[in-house]
Design a protein that fits this description.
binds NADP nicotinamide-adenine-dinucleotide phosphate, single chain, about 25% strand, 12 helices, binds zinc ion
């Protein structure tokens, strides 16, 4: 076993603070990674503050972080795909059973035995898994993906969650040229959704509660921007969307978006507000609308997304912070005050 510097929270109300954690020595299938950058996802904040207690209670101490980019420092004897020095990524999952129908379909995120990067049972060391707010991690090679060499690493880290979580449903629902697509919420996920839907050729409309994000939204690839609190702007789009991706992290009125779908249109939730959302039956019945959800994406699709981003030079817009600024970053993230993802420069942890 080896020790690693990390940041953890001791309870739902404690700040994130420096700590030391244990990592296993690499087994024959493992890759040891020196973490260079880790994005801050709103899911990290939900988990640290135990906001999802009803669905997946947080075990403390928690070391969050599932948007990991790093350099391979060591590989187990059975690892042939990767070698020391390779620049790689790890997202929300670090293991799965590999045998169930979901794993066989390349949809490891739905495997009943999948292990999340943090706050899942650690079958090697006991306790729970610890995530990317740390200097290094040891991961089964099946859950390690390659980062295209042309991508900026601080901006590539958020692709491992925000990137795949938006890429997967956009692909699944056939977003392409000629389709009118809405993205609700211009945060970490939302801004990646805009970039990707634009790259797929769709007509992209951003719905935001923050009028000051309008110019950025256009620069990121939006064709139109609607300030969602302005009813008359919303009404202009009634019955016109093929697909809407909802990335909002808090309670909000999804009926306002369901009524914007055209016949057979779909609204997919990727945002995971802790409280239930209310859905009027008539908003679905009229127009044969559908409402669905989507969780990250499988490993093969994550690599496909990274390769796509490499070809199109797509990364997240990041504010790079030293790890010592984590608590400030969380407070700003809670207020939707980030443009558009925090990415922790992990060199700050090594020099601490
Ligand atoms: P984020 O950066 O905080 O973005 C969320 C955006 O939602 C905000 O920037 C804001 O955009 C909008 N918003 C926030 N509060 C709102 C409110 N009360 N009413 C209306 N709009 C509001 O968060 P994120 O990292 O993108 O994550 C978004 C959600 O997705 C979180 O719940 C997270 O846990 C979840 N998530 C799910 C998956 C999955 O696999 N399904 C993966 C990752 C994350 P505007 O300022 O533009 O209005
Ligand atoms: Zn995430």
């Amino acid at each position: 076993m080896q020790s690693a510097n990390a940041f953890s929270a001791a309870s739902a109300t404690s700040p994130l603070a420096p700590t030391t954690i244990l990592r296993r020595d690499p087994t024959e299938h493992d890759v040891q990674i020196e973490i260079l950058f880790c994005g801050i996802c709103h899911s990290d904040l939900h988990a640290v503050r135990d906001e999802w207690n009803e669905f997946m209670a947080t075990e403390y101490p928690i070391v969050p972080g599932h948007e990991i980019v790093g350099r391979v420092t060591q590989t187990g004897s059975a690892v042939t795909r990767l070698k020391p020095g390779d620049i790689v990524g790890v997202g929300c999952m670090v293991d799965s059973d590999g045998t169930c129908e979901h794993c066989e379909a390349g949809l490891e995120q739905f495997c009943p035995n999948r292990i999340l990067t943090y706050n899942s049972p650690d079958r090697h060391l006991g306790g729970v898994t610890y995530g990317g707010y740390s200097e290094m991690i040891v991961v089964d090679q099946r859950f390690v993906v390659r980062i295209p060499s042309n991508l900026d690493l601080a901006g590539a880290a958020p692709l491992l969650c925000a990137g795949i979580t938006t890429y997967s449903p956009l692909r699944h629902w056939g977003v392409s040229k000629g389709k009118k697509v809405g993205v609700v919420g211009l945060g970490g996920l939302g801004h990646m959704g805009v970039k990707l839907a634009h790259a797929f050729g769709a007509h992209v409309v951003v719905f935001t509660t923050s009028p000051e994000k309008t110019e950025d939204a256009r620069r990121l690839g939006a064709d139109e921007v609607v300030v969602s609190r302005r009813t008359e702007e919303m009404e202009k789009h009634a019955g016109s969307f093929d697909f809407i991706l909802d990335t909002v992290s808090a309670q909000h009125d999804i009926n306002a978006y369901l009524t914007l779908l055209r016949r057979d249109g779909n609204l997919t939730l990727v945002g995971a507000p802790p409280q239930p959302l209310s859905v009027p039956a008539f908003s679905l019945i009229g127009g044969r609308h559908s409402l669905s959800g989507s969780a990250i994406g499988g490993i093969a699709e994550t690599q496909e997304m990274l390769d796509f981003c490499g070809e199109h030079n797509i990364t997240a817009e990041v504010e790079v912070i030293p790890i010592q600024k984590l608590n400030e970053a969380y407070d700003r993230l809670a207020k939707a005050d980030v443009k558009y993802r925090f990415s922790i420069d992990m060199a700050s942890l090594r020099s601490d």
